TrEMBL record:
InterPro entries found in the cross-reference section: DIP1984-like
Keywords associated with the record: Coiled coil
Coiled coil: 3-64
Record-given protein name: DIP1984 family protein
A Pfam family annotated for this UniProt entry: DUF6847
Length: 153
């Protein structure tokens, strides 16, 4: 199995776990005398099995990321951290720009006037550069994910 396939499977497991959680919550209590639509014990067993499969898969993914070279100096795990931090920085600066661009209507000169304290144009350029850096790095990561075989324990 390729690493990219394992990542897709992980997302599927996580989605199924959330669905099982929801189904459990819907069937955990019923009116006295009624039967639940689904057997909670069976749902709990299915949830436990799925969580075990997810744990095994995540451990294999983590091992693969750690031991797969991305370039001469960094592993795939190192670059994933770098990509996530670039994304976080981009998100923070985007939120700052959104706040800086907020227009507040004033109805008279006596109302308080707010001014932006950052250079919007410079910061927008920085967000654009971060977006490009994130996108290029993510494309290389995705390419490597489809070329890399998932390592077994």
């Amino acid at each position: 199995m390729k690493l990219a396939e394992a990542l897709i499977l992980r997302a599927d497991y996580q989605k199924r776990i959330e669905q099982l959680k929801s189904r459990l919550l819907q069937n955990i209590q019923v009116q006295e005398g009624d039967d639940p639509y689904e057997n909670p014990k069976e749902l709990m067993k299915e949830l436990t099995d799925l969580l075990s499969q997810l744990q095994d898969l995540v451990q294999k993914i983590n091992k693969t990321n750690l031991l797969t070279p991305f370039n001469e100096t960094e592993s795939l795990a190192d670059v994933l951290v770098k990509r996530d931090l670039i994304g976080q920085e981009r998100s923070i600066y985007s939120n700052l720009l959104e706040q800086a661009n907020f227009r507040q209507d004033r109805y008279s000169r006596s109302e308080i006037k707010y001014v932006t304290t950052i250079n919007v144009k410079e910061n927008q350029k920085h967000v654009d550069e971060l977006s490009k850096k994130y996108r290029l790095l993510d494309m290389k990561i995705q390419e490597l994910n489809w070329q890399t075989d998932l390592l077994e324990k």
